# Entry
Amino acid sequence: MKIGQRTLTMDTLTITGNWNEMAGKLKQQFAGLTDNDVLFREGKEEELLGRLQKKLGKTRDEVRALIGKL
# Structure
């Protein structure tokens, strides 16, 4: 499913566009997130999801939904 600048599928998350802007929104929404928590590198989407999942105490699907709403 294509949502703005993000592409969400059942098993993967592909982030394109301005991740810095999206990361800033996540940090505003969840004050406990650090720059390292939202660090994104091409090809490391699953690592990012894992960090956010652990830090926020949410499932991968919940984290994907959060990113999809940004």
